[in-house]
User: What shape does this take?
Amino acid sequence: MKTIDRMIIENLEQQIEILEGKVDLLMGHIKKLEKIIKDLTEKI
Assistant: This one.
């Protein structure tokens, strides 16, 4: 049987992985927004 500490650590590791995925998605969206803003400012 796993100790409670081990279970907590595994749960935290999973949550960190999920967060890393969300951060990657956010970075992708930010890069797209930067490109859109750059394109718009060049047209003005």
